[in-house]
Amino acid sequence: MSKKLKQIAIYGKGGIGKSTTTSNISAALSTLGYKVMQFGCDPKSDSTNTLRDGKYIPTVLDTLREKNVVKAHEVIFEGFNGIHCVEAGGPAPGVGCAGRGIITAVQLFKQQKIFEELDLDYVIYDVLGDVVCGGFAVPIREGIAEHVFTVSSADFMAIYAANNLFKGIKKYSNSGGALLGGVIANSINAPYAKEIIDDFVKQTSTQVVEYVPRSVTVTQSELQGKTTIEAAPKSEQAKIYKTLAEKIANHEESKIPSPLEVSELREWATKWGDYLLALETGEISTKAVGNL
Amino acid sequence: MSKFVDRPRYLCALSGAIGTINALPGGVPILHAAAGCGGNIGNALNAGAGYLGSGYCSGQSLPSSNVYENEIVFGGELRLQEQVENTLKVIDGELYFVVTGCMVEMIGDDTNSVVKKFKNHDKPVLSAETGGFKGNSYKGYDIILETLFREFVKKTDEKNSKVVNLWGIVPVQDVFWKGNIKILKTLIEKLGYKVNTFFGDGETLDNLRDSGEAILNIVVSDIYGIEPAKVFEEEHNVPYISVQFPIGTYATEDFINAIADRLGIDKKFTDKLIYDEKKQFYSYFERLADIYNDIDLQRYAVIVGEVNYAQALTKFLADDLGWLPELVVITDLLNDTDGYKDIIKSRFTNYISEFTPNVVFDTDTSSVKKHLNKIWKQNDGSKYYDGFNPAFILGSAFERDLADDLGVPHLSVTYPISNRIVLDRAYAGFNGALSLTEDILSVLVNGR
User: Fold this and answer.
1) Residue B135 CB neighbours (<10 A)
2) Which end of chain B is more exposed for a tag (fewer CB within 10 A), N or C?
3) Rg of chain B, C-alpha, whole Å
4) Which residue, among A133, A171, A172, would best test binding to B if mutated, counting the most B CBs under 10 Å from its CB?
5) Which CATH number do you get for residue A112?
6) Is A95 a residue whose pLDDT tops 70?
7) Nearest by CB to A133, which of B108, B117, B335?
8) Is the separation of the CB atoms in B270 and B257 below 8 Å?
9) Do B113 and A136 touch (CB under 8 A)?
10) CATH architecture of the domain covering B163-280
11) Which 8-state DSSP code applies to residue A43?
């Protein structure tokens, strides 16, 4: 029976930890024996950095700029544990159209049927934070990723961004595109953070896939140019990433998200603001986060 | 680093797509593009192809989403949806085809997902990404064919051993495409086969839909339609051969033999067909014997055109008409990596007449004179000078300037042709060669 390729897209507010999370997921999946490709969709082209000892790889678009015709193999580079690393690349800040660049890069791979050739189990698209035009939504169009996961912390701005992304995902989900697999809760350390995120996913009819705390282990590994899986495989944090990877591997059912309206989101935020104030003044207490 | 093309003989991919869809029976293109694309393309397709006309709903009636700044900023998919809905209500077509322009490709409009909403309409609605920047008209032709082969042609394992498909003659870019297709189709029908050309007289979309039952695809070109042929092979398990576009007795004989050979037809049968065709051809052609010799109708020639026509015209002039086509300028945009240039150059060798033309690849109209000066010694003021005359220029309407410059007669046969009206005239095969001979030599006896 032929292997079914699973294509996943990771979205989330800029700086929230998408690339860190994605690279660790890729690394973890590879240690579980899967063949993985990580496809960075950001003009910064830094998604696969930590899979390559901190080194940047030539991007699809830079290569296309030099030569008119590019074979996909020329822009796939091997990273940690045999992970196939690709960076779409794009223009320098302030010029051109990065969105069109993403379209061009993703379509190049689709046309050349690379995924079948490499016999991949997973393709993970790590998409830049601000989805400002149609091009950045290409990975969740029909025929590309089937599941989207949003990375969010419990900070209001990250949640607002996640909710906004749900609107975009909903549009594509409705026409055969990717469905929402859930939220990867990042930087969850304070006890109330878990509660906030849990409540948010309840309001938007989705789920939290895993809670990932902020950890100095991650910082240390990144400064070495490696993922936590590679630099500190026996650490607690590495275990969390492995669990996350397993959950994603076993994940089957994704749904159409139900984003909140702006006013609903405001009300929701106010409610939590009041609650946190009450916590601070000692009116209420709360139980600790499970995996700290 | 790319250079500009001086007076290109093609338009963008979107135009090629529109030209191709218009040529399909009942085909209605719906543009998802900025306002202006449709109008400009409509004019170029009409006036450059011997006055093709607007037909049922082309030209300025082309359905188009006409996106403005609003749609560029906020996305054009809703506008497109509205446009498709309205077109389906108002325009009576058999096949609707949404094609995209540069701007909507840049903002990332998901055209496919909009068009999918119409998949239950009683007539098929297809879509293809034909952003102009993807290439020139020929690319548009290829994209449309590929889409049709993937999504419209029915998949079937039952092949009909008496059916073949034929393409590679690009509507509009080959201004005489309709007549040419008719001639080549008739030749193969005489071999005992039903031929689907998709664009020919009397053909329907059902023919196209059922074309998956063919046992062979005949691509009449070295480069146009080749990628779609590969798709057809992948999707429908039908192999293809690539043959050169034929004008004249030698080329057409090769054309018939190549196809007959591939189909496994008895050589005796093919030989008889060729004999009969040639007999008829020469019964007309021999009329020229007198006047050709009496007033010496032999000429030097310069040929300017695309891949299909350049090799066909040169061979015809050298081998059938006994002319001296010293310079051939092939104007296609070809990059060096695909190896096509060598294949194309080889088509200009081994002439029966043993003539060897100078073949160059140059996209620029203004370069033709430079190339001529390179291959033909200029008059340096010496007493006796072997001039490039009497000569003839066979090219497009653009070559009139060169002809005036050299003081020689000229005939427009390659795109763009703005100084002739073309209806069903054809230049392919045996009969087409007779028409071409009439047209060329008539120019020479014009003053009598």
Assistant:
1) 18
2) N
3) 23
4) A133
5) 3.40.50.300
6) yes
7) B108
8) yes
9) no
10) 3-Layer(aba) Sandwich (3.40)
11) T
Total-model pTM: 0.90
Domain ranges of chain B: 13-151, 163-280, 287-444
Confidence class for position A26, pLDDT limits 50, 70, 90: very high
Closest CA to B341 of B362, B323, B320: B362
| A247 is a domain residue | yes
How many structural domains compose chain A? 1
Please give the structure tokens belonging to residue B309. Answer: 């026509």
Provide the b/e sequence for B398-410 (b: ≥16 CB within 10 Å): bbbbbbeebebbb
The dihedral through the CA atoms of B85, B91, B94, B100 has a sign that is negative
**Residue A284 pLDDT:** 66
- Topology, domain B287-444: Rossmann fold (3.40.50)
What the block records as the tokens of A266 is 């405001």
Q: For residue B218, is pLDDT > 60?
A: yes
Residue B23 has pLDDT above 90, yes or no: yes
**Residue A79, in any domain of the structure:** yes
* CA B383 to each of CA A56, B300, B376, B390: distance values in angstroms, whole numbers, following the listed order: 69, 22, 17, 19
Range of the domain at A97: 6-280
| B117·A100 Cβ contact <8 A | no
Q: Does domain B13-151 have CATH number 3.30.360.10?
A: no
Instruction: Tell me which residues of A are annotated as active site.
Output: 13, 18, 44, 130
Q: Which of A69, A137, A176 sits opposite B108 (nearest CB)?
A: A137
- Fill in the amino acid letter for B277: E
- Tens digits of residue pLDDT in A205-228: 999 999 999 999 999 999 999 999
CB distance B387 to B406 below 8 Å? no
Q: Give a yes or no: residue A287 inside a domain.
A: no
Task: Identify the residue among B32, B80, B104, B107 best suited for mutation to test binding to A, counting A beta carbons within 10 A and taking the highest.
Answer: B107
